[in-house]
Amino acid sequence: MENHIQIFDTTLRDGEQTPGVNFTFDERLKIAKQLEKWGVDIIEAGFPASSTGSFKSVESIAETLTTTAVCGLARCVKNDIDKVYEATKKAVKPRIHVFIATSPIHRDSKLMMSQEEVLAAIKEHVSYAKQYFDVVQFSPEDATRTELPFLIECVQTAVNAGASVINIPDTVGYTYPTEYGNIFKTLKENITTDHEVIYSAHCHDDLGLAVANSMAAIENGALRIEGTLNGIGERAGNTALEEVALGLYVRQDHYNNQTKLNLKETKQTSELIARFAGIRVPRNKAIVGQNAFSHESGIHQDGVLKNPETYEIMTPQMVGVKTTEMPLGKLSGKHAFAEKLIALGYEINPEDQKTLFKQFKTVADKKKTVTDRDIHALIQGTEHEQNAIYQVETLQLQFVSEGLQSAVVVIKDNEGQTYQDSSIGSGSIVSIYNAVDRIFNRDTELLDYRIDSVTEGTDAQGEVHVQLKINGKNVTGIGIDHDILLASCKAYVEAHAKYVSEFEVKEGSH
Ligand code: KIV
Ligand code: ZN
């Protein structure tokens, strides 16, 4: 495929701007590897100038990926561009994405810059980036609320300065398909260039139109779509890439173009991101939701049994949904467990497999059947605990009186040192969190607390998500256990561990 539709995945940059989502260093690397397996063309791995954590992630993703282009985001600021260069220089295909806002509201209220100043900034910084990068992508932020003649001037300036990818962000999810399509058509008709220029669509879903707008861009000449898996992102999120990919695949008759994605990796990629982001995919979500391929009504079931095409425009197998899951049970042995890990796409060393097998047996003793989701949860729980710098060693709870509970918490750090404290509270969770607060002695506010069950049924494992503000920084934590109080404690402690590793605060204040 010569001019295929390129997929630019920004799960690790715009996706991570989802409220309450912050991936760890390790999770970012795993997501990047899975995105490479899915076959995306470019990964926007982060905004290196924004934090040391983002810089290091982009750098390690650039060093690790073997085929995919790795891109970093930069404002029209020379230091941002230098940072992207430093972080991506070891990538097989290093890329930069330079942006500046162009709409009147952003120029006047945010940047305090005139049109001439914005044009000068574009010229200066795209040329500066071009010294380091063969391919420079430029985005006029809030393009869809920018006066069309001025948008043309901005794009022409970027192209003249050497940009070869022009991305048109619908930053606030304001546009509609015919209007957005027309922007691409107008740019293609008006921009003059002596080098090839690719047009790219970047949509937000505030009005629920992100995918429709992206498809309209393709109809009008865009050859690149930016977005995220499961549509995660700031506010209502970004274009859901899996929907674009399947839209192009199923309606080849209309779009006459394709992505190079390995569609069979779609479900696996979506699940990985949902787990790390701590955001469940809605059941009815197109392509990757649990119900996307199930038929409830008798008439539909009857039709599907006679001929699946009566009610199915695509098959679950196309996107890697396994319809014949073989659950494990308490009689399953090491071999069946190892086979299952491989089937679920995990590469786990023999030592860790032994530990996981023991944990699997504990779960199997408590549950009749251990499903794939249980195994994912088991591994996720273990990964969370192994990667975190703190682990919950012991949790003891005691009823005091009049609804008061007392909790004793013992935490071990990754150097083997233990910390212990106790507290009372008006309920079990409050007493646990008070005890942990006494151990860490940080300014902590619990912003969100949520329990999900990993599978259906009363014997399900509990998955607790918390969002905390610690010393002014938002962090999240996940804890998984059969005992939801222990899961709650693990989630809270993991958020503290993330705070220390992400914000590199060495407080020494236990
Ligand atoms: O939505 C947006 O405008 C962005 C830019 C940084 C491209 O994400
Ligand atoms: Zn965006």
From TrEMBL:
SUPFAM superfamilies in the cross-refs: 2-isopropylmalate synthase LeuA, allosteric (dimerisation) domain, Aldolase
Keyword Amino-acid biosynthesis among record annotations: yes
UniProt entry keywords in alphabetical sequence: Acyltransferase, Amino-acid biosynthesis, Branched-chain amino acid biosynthesis, Cytoplasm, Leucine biosynthesis, Manganese, Metal-binding, Transferase
SMART domains assigned to the protein according to its UniProt record, in alphabetical order: LeuA_dimer
Protein name in UniProt: 2-isopropylmalate synthase
Source organism superkingdom: Bacteria
Region: Regulatory domain, residue numbers: 391-510
Gene3D superfamilies in the record: 1.10.238.260, 3.30.160.270, Aldolase class I
Pathway as given in its UniProt record: Amino-acid biosynthesis; L-leucine biosynthesis; L-leucine from 3-methyl-2-oxobutanoate: step 1/4
InterPro entries xref list: 2-IPM_HCS-like, 2-isopropylmalate_synth_dimer, Aldolase_TIM, LeuA/HCS_post-cat, LeuA_allosteric_dom_sf, LeuA_bact_synth, PYR_CT
Domain Pyruvate carboxyltransferase: 5-267
Catalyzed reactions per annotation: 3-methyl-2-oxobutanoate + acetyl-CoA + H2O = (2S)-2-isopropylmalate + CoA + H(+)
EC number(s) reported in the record: 2.3.3.13
Binding site for Mn(2+): D14, H202, H204, N238
Subunit structure: Homodimer.
Family per record: Belongs to the alpha-IPM synthase/homocitrate synthase family. LeuA type 1 subfamily.
Pfam families assigned: HCS_D2 (PF22617), HMGL-like (PF00682), LeuA_dimer (PF08502)
Stated role: Catalyzes the condensation of the acetyl group of acetyl-CoA with 3-methyl-2-oxobutanoate (2-ketoisovalerate) to form 3-carboxy-3-hydroxy-4-methylpentanoate (2-isopropylmalate).
Top EC class, one word: transferase
Names of required cofactors: Mn(2+)
Sample GO molecular function, one term: 2-isopropylmalate synthase activity
